[in-house]
Amino acid sequence: MHMADALISPAVGGVFWAASALLTIRCSSVLKRSDGEDKTAMMGVLSAFVFAAQMINFSIPGTGSSGHIGGALLLSVFLGPRRAFLSMVSILTVQALFFADGGLLALGCNVFNMGFFPCFIAYPLIYKPITERIGGRRGVFAGSVLASVAGLEMGAFCVVAEMLASGMTSLPAGLFFSLMMGIHLAIGAVEGMVTAMIIAYVMANAPDELPDAGAGFGARALFFFALMTVLLGSVAAWYASADPDGLEWSIDKIKDVPGLLLHKTGLHSFLYSLQQKVSFFPDYSFKDAGVPGRLGTSVSGVLGSFCALLCAAASGKILKHRKRRAK
Amino acid sequence: MKLKGLQKTRIYTEGPGYIFSPAALVVITLIYVVFVASFDKYQVLRLVPLAAYPVFLAASADVRPGAVLRKIAAASPVVLLIAVWNPLFDASRCEILGLSVSCGWLSFASVVFKFALTVSATLLMIAAAGFDKVCGALRALGLPDVLVTQLFLLNRYIRLLLDETHNAVRARLFRGGRITVANAGYICGPLLMRSIDRSRRIRFALACRGYNGSLCHENKELLSLCDKLFVIFWTVFFIAVRFQDFICASWRAILRCLG
Amino acid sequence: MSPVFEARNLEYSYSDGTDALRGLSFTLGEGEVLALAGVNGSGKSTLFMLLMGCLEPSGGEVLYNGENIRDEVRFKLRREVGLLFQNPDDQLFLPTVWEDVAFGPQNLGLADDVVAERVASALCATGMEALAARAPWKLSGGEKTLVALAGLLAMKPRALLLDEPSAGLDPRSRLNLIKIIRQIPCSIIVATHDLDMAIDICDRVIILKGGIAAGESRIPGLLHDEAFMQSCGLELPLGYACMNRGPMLKRTSYF
Question: Which of B166, B175, B192, B239 is most buried when burial is the number of CB atoms within 10 A of its CB?
């Protein structure tokens, strides 16, 4: 799932670099302030372990194929989401720099696709609730497989959206989504099973090494609202009214009035052409006219909601920080 | 199993270091990658002058081109798998230097060429400056200390863990065992436990030598005058190539000369 | 004058309930070199972790310079006492030998020129000057041990704790190490199975058995008491055993 620089545009790469950088800075500053046991060494060595263990291909009897461990989920179990995310950043950076697995510009996208979703969505919202509810080996297996599949599917979805938004591939969106998400469904299942086997081994032989589950943070509520956002943005948006809103209706009435120049000269013209170049989803659809309209609506709805969430969270943090400093 | 191939993580021999600072290399390589990626998917010939940067790096850092090309080839399957659909789904025609070509194949060539340029620039940056110096430069450029420490420790212990993993797998295979999902726990579980134990000892070792959150104490000036000139020169070159079609201009000049 | 280290009825249990130490008491005087001998799992490494304040004892106390190891004393202790781990890979984490040896002095907040001078002198003392630019992962086992030791010497410690320093070394490297340790001007505790090395460099020996000090004497003392050594699960030093024993037993087959 590693994306190369050749497959994304600077705009898409830049946006995800900014998102991943913000997450990285946030995780680093939280860990710096925390009073807990210093796990710096554990993060480094477990990252190296994940790197090495990913090289082992475990054959799946009866299928002729093989798979390997994921990494982000296993790291989240032993280190917690923030430390696991930073470990994934270091692993992906080394993979990009030494093995050309992923590019420098695409690093932000790769960190987001393979770090954010497993560490901050799949682990706290799927793995932890399932293992706590079911418990024991069965809980670990169910949680690992479901969380692994969910994390990979979300990442694969994002990969396709990023590539389509960049416009470097001519693959039809529907086919691209089906292929990527279908393949990663199988990969996720195998990764989940391998991860579960390892966690089960530790549970059986050294249960003290597994960190406590710890207090939840309103995971259920968060999951509910996240699910509602995805459903509204992706499905309900198809049924949004096509009639113009009040402002559009007003402009429609006066656009033929003489003397009214609409983005024809000077700054207006420049900003209009800039907007045409930069917007990923003009009018909530893909630039490529061949892509089905509903798909464009769904993708732009989900990604747009997510961007709004990030901006709101960032604004909240900045305001909170300024308030604390003012005190 | 591909562990053996991963032992060869270096494509250069240790040398006295590069003439320009690692920070300059990091900055200009990032700028380079952005410029390469900014070209439209049908622009192939206009990318050609940008090959000057990796060629310059390879020559000045004394890196064998074969080693770089082998790494590019090893990393190319995924990109080829995605780009190969372009000729199948894009049947439109474009005109290049008076010739009519398939746009699908043009975009395929563009993706592959961009991949080769960006990957070679990244690998050569590491080859020229060294991974550890690049980490030091990233720290000076603002990367958080905890992440720089992670990169150092990861680079340091990756070989050790790779050897241990290799030995664990070989020990199982030599005794007639198999590597399947069913015994993943028995193979990776002990490795994981040993890694956790090792990490505890490393934590104590760090604490016993006064570790204060930073493994890197590099305090040298970030960019000298030479480094700044290096960055400015290549940036101007990239801008010129991005906004001026030198290939077409050269082709027209050649046609004029030929009458 | 207070001893450098003093352990009073030290007790420690692992998380699974196994007792590592059960009431161990000893002292380390200024300039003294003490050998700590015992079978595998007798608690030598655990004792070193307790002395450095990395583990909390479940009973008894550890005193450094007459003061109980608390947070502020622990901070001072780690600047003045060096610990050589059994596996040098656990304490070599920087890209080159030079940077690794400089790590400790830099954390002490010393100026760059002082750091450089200390690193040069530590590498010279261990004979590792030629390897300053080498990556630690490329060194042999003996070289790693010496570089790790150089990293401690660069901090100009008041005391050193050496955990099995000669483990895995070939005979020549071992002799080289013995020569180097003999020239270090500080108090040292050496945890070792290499009793011949203990006789060469140490002043006193403590034999650990069952988590307590089963015996303590000046060198060679108890190390030549065959009955006592065997009761502690140990063999006589090789040099002494060769002088006093008859021919070796004939090797038997498995089948």
Answer: B192
Domains, chain A, in order of start with CATH, read: 5-217 (1.10.1760.20), 257-326 (no CATH)
pTM over cut 0.90:
no
Packing angle of the helix pair A219-234, A293-326 (nearest 10 deg)? 140
CA–CA dist A10, A13 (Å, integer) = 5
Exposure string of B51-84, with b = 16+ CB inside 10 Å and e = fewer, is eebbeebbeebebeeebbeebbeebbebbeebbe
Q: Is residue A244 predicted with pLDDT exceeding 90?
A: no
Mean pLDDT value across chain B: 85
Closest CA to A26 of A267, A262, A320: A320
C79 min Cα distance to partner chain B (Å) = 7
User: Minimal Cα–Cα distance from A25 to chain B, Å?
Assistant: 7
**Cβ distance B69 to B51 under 8 Å?**
no
Pairing label, strands C59-64, A58-60:
unpaired
Sign of CA dihedral C157, C158, C163, C166: positive
> Using a CB-CB distance cutoff of 8 angstroms, which residues of chain C are in contact with residue B201?
85, 87, 90
Q: Do residues A230 and A302 make contact, with C-beta atoms less than 8 angstroms apart?
A: yes
The ipTM (two decimal places) reads: 0.89
> C5-244 — its CATH code?
3.40.50.300
Q: Do B37 and A105 touch (CB under 8 A)?
A: yes
CA trace torsion B155, B158, B163, B165 (10° rounding) = 180
pLDDT digits (tens, 9 = 90+) for A258-290: 555 555 567 767 777 777 776 767 766 776 666
Is the Cβ–Cβ distance between B112 and B45 less than 8 Å? no
What's the full length of chain C, in residues?
Answer: 255
Place of tokens 């230097």: B97
